[in-house]
Amino acid sequence: MLCLVAVALSFVGLATLIVKFAKADGDFTVTSRGPPKREEVEGKVVWITGASRGIGEILANQFAGLGAKVILSARNASELERVKSEIISKYPASSIEVLPLDLASGEESIKEVVKRAESLFSNAGVDFMVHNAAFERPKRKALDETEEGLRATMNINVLGTITLTSLLAPYMLERGRGHFVVMSSAAGKCPAPGQALYSASKHALNGYFHSLRSELYDKGIKVTVVCPGPIETSKSSNVSSSAEGGLKEKRVSSERCAELTIIAATHGLREAWISYQPVLFVMYLVQYMPTLGYWLMDRIGAKRLDAAANKKSAYSWNLLFGQKKSI
Ligand SMILES: NC(=O)c1ccc[n+]([C@@H]2O[C@H](COP(=O)([O-])OP(=O)(O)OC[C@H]3O[C@@H](n4cnc5c(N)ncnc54)[C@H](OP(=O)(O)O)[C@@H]3O)[C@@H](O)[C@H]2O)c1
Predict the structure, then answer these.
(1) Is the CB of residue 172 less than 8 Å from the CB of residue 178?
(2) Which residue has the higher pLDDT, 15 or 293?
(3) DSSP states of 91-133
(4) Rounded to 5 degrees, what are φ and ψ at 87?
(5) Which CATH code fits 24-287?
């Protein structure tokens, strides 16, 4: 009898876990944490790149809502001013500064911007550096990529981001504290057919920042690498609303992505994944059962290129279990 009860409970436990996984919008670690810890960011200086739109704009709003002093960076100064005034109208007591930055402008120019960031809010110094800016090209075959595309992707996503980090980290080390929050991607964990350069740039960031943390952790420097799958932003709305074979592309909202990012950072997580299925499933598979994960990706790759070329969902279960490739 006792045995039967134990078996029944195990089944219930397993079924609950499966349902939870099927509905998850992030990995089990980040989704099991509580809300963002306000005390970790209140009054702190948070510098966000790529804050002129998309996830960066929402991150800026949420950090400001938690009482952080926020520095907004991107190239488009007028969009940054718009984001600033919208945040101030929502949170009148917030402290927001606009600091234009081009990550492709080279070391000397980035050095000046870092000095300026350090001097803002009465020389408070940067507590959180949120590396959110990125360059992403429309999906295309790896062999169709050009050298110009390669340079643009690497200059912004990798060289600019790492240069900024190496110029800012000494200030943080002097203070004995600092936290890099890196907006990577599921494409930084798994193969991303149609996005080979982007995927290469995000893998590079993952490698650099996990290495940096292991070198500087005992000197007070923290790193949180965030790997989102498909996220709903204004640039994705065209694709996400189009049904494909009865299946819609399901994207996590920018608001939830920003919330989980701040949860991951304020709870001190080293890495967090944000996505609905099936991308989350593929991430687990590639991480924990790589032979199976890469085998599966090899079966999806050409179908995904096909779907992207036809403006269909590049993230649906259909790619795994349906739809024949045409190339
Ligand atoms: N959206 C998704 O589905 C998704 C999924 C996984 C990961 N991510 C990652 O999440 C982050 C934000 O994504 P998003 O979709 O919100 O991006 P987005 O809408 O394309 O915005 C990119 C931001 O980066 C800035 N930027 C571009 N080039 C720059 C440069 N040379 N120097 C400085 N800033 C530059 C842009 O501003 P300016 O043009 O004004 O410079 C903009 O604010 C990125 O790192 C992306 O890779 C996004």
Answers:
(1) yes
(2) 293
(3) STT--EEE----TTS-HHHHHHHHHHHHHHHHHT--SEEEE--
(4) -65, -40
(5) 3.40.50.720
Dihedral angle, C-alpha 61, 63, 64, 66, nearest 10 °: 120
Is 276's C-beta closer than 6 angstroms to any atom of ligand 1?
no
Catalytic residue, from 91, 171, 198, 288: name it: 198
217 classed as catalytic:
no
CA geometry: angle 157, 158, 162, nearest 5 deg: 120
Task: Show me where the domains of the chain are located.
Answer: 24-287
**Residue (of 238, 245, 210, 41) closest to 128 by Cα position:** 41
| Distance of CA 240 from the midpoint of ligand 1 (Å) | 18
Residue 311, pLDDT score: 81
Structure-token pair, residue 40: 């970790």
Shortest CA distance to 127 belongs to which of 84, 87, 79, 67? 67
- List the structure tokens of 73: 């960076």
Q: Is the pLDDT of residue 226 over 70?
A: yes
Q: Comparing C-alpha atoms, which of 312, 305, 311 is closest to residue 326?
A: 305
Gap between the Cα atoms of 111 and 130, Å rounded: 17
